[in-house]
Amino acid sequence: MKEVVLYDYWRSSASYRVRIALNLLGIDYKTVPINLLDGAHRKPDYLALNPQGFVPTLVIDGKTLTQSLAIIEYLTEIRPECGLLPPDITDRQKVRALAYAVAMDIHPICNTHVVAHVTAITGKADAREEWMKHFIADGLRKLEAMIGELDGAFSFGDTPTMADLCLVPQVYNARRWGVDMTAFKRIVDIDGRCAELPAFQAAHPDRVAETSLPAATR
């Protein structure tokens, strides 16, 4: 296999998802850090790889892949035995619904460039934190209800799926922004189980920051 390369930002939720997937599948990869704070994602060389200027970008099998969930689904299709998506079509829909509830309903409106614009147009220094807390908490409340209808140790069943790859980075962000997690018992329990697994541990932003950032910038 050709070298697998992940263009990554340590604190990006989308990158975090793909790191977990690669770890769970046992795929070795090289990391190329893309510092969003320095605007590295807007440089011509990176835009030639990913015209949206987002992270992650994954180079695998001689192909350049973008969009975290599309990447994870690609990995699932080349490794169907991994279990990130169940074999049954109805079960796959349920897992996708949970994953999309995070990746399409919470994450986009809490993305860095969106929140920066909110702060700019309101002129309120504290608008960023208020915005994050409101939309993350509201999204997690709905996700808790969706998961509550299902059985299993994880979001769907007794092994991690694509839903958990989305849930864990969102919980990390929720805690980072001071969201009260008291009401989200199932979510907290699932996050705790994932935290016990080496693949999730190795993908954690704090672990990644130890190797990709100078000490002064952590």
Structure at a glance:
The protein has 218 residues and is of the alpha+beta class. The chain contains 10 helices and 4 strands; from the N terminus they run βαβαββαααααααα.
Structural notes for this entry:
By secondary structure, the chain is α+β, with helices and mostly antiparallel strands. The chain folds into two domains: about 5-80, 3-Layer(aba) Sandwich (Glutaredoxin), CATH 3.40.30; about 85-200, Glutathione S-transferase Yfyf (Class Pi), Chain A, domain 2 (Up-down Bundle), CATH 1.20.1050. The chain contains ten helices and four strands, in the order βαβαββαααααααα. It has helices at about 15-25, 45-50, 70-80, 90-105, 110-120, 125-150, 160-175, 185-195, 200-205, 205-210, and strands spanning about 5-10, 30-35, 55-60, 65. A four-stranded mixed β-sheet has the order 2-1-3-4, with helices on one face.
Radius of gyration: 17 Å
Helical segment count: 10
In whole angstroms, the N-to-C terminal distance is 33 Å
What is the subunit organization of this protein? single chain
- In the predicted model, the low-confidence regions spanning at least 5 consecutive residues are none
Q: What class do helices, strands and sheet pairing give?
A: alpha+beta
Q: What fraction of residues sit in β-strands?
A: 5-15%
Number of domains: 2
Find the count of extended strands (DSSP E, 2+ residues).
4
CATH C-level class of the largest domain is: Mainly Alpha
User: Biggest β-sheet: count, sense, barrel?
Assistant: 4 strands, mixed
Mean pLDDT: 90
- As a percent range, the share of helical residues equals 40-55%
CATH topology of the largest domain: Glutathione S-transferase Yfyf (Class Pi), Chain A, domain 2
Order of strands across the main sheet: 2-1-3-4
The helix-strand sequence is: EHEHEEHHHHHHHH
Secondary-structure arrangement, i.e. CATH architecture of the largest domain: Up-down Bundle
Shape: globular
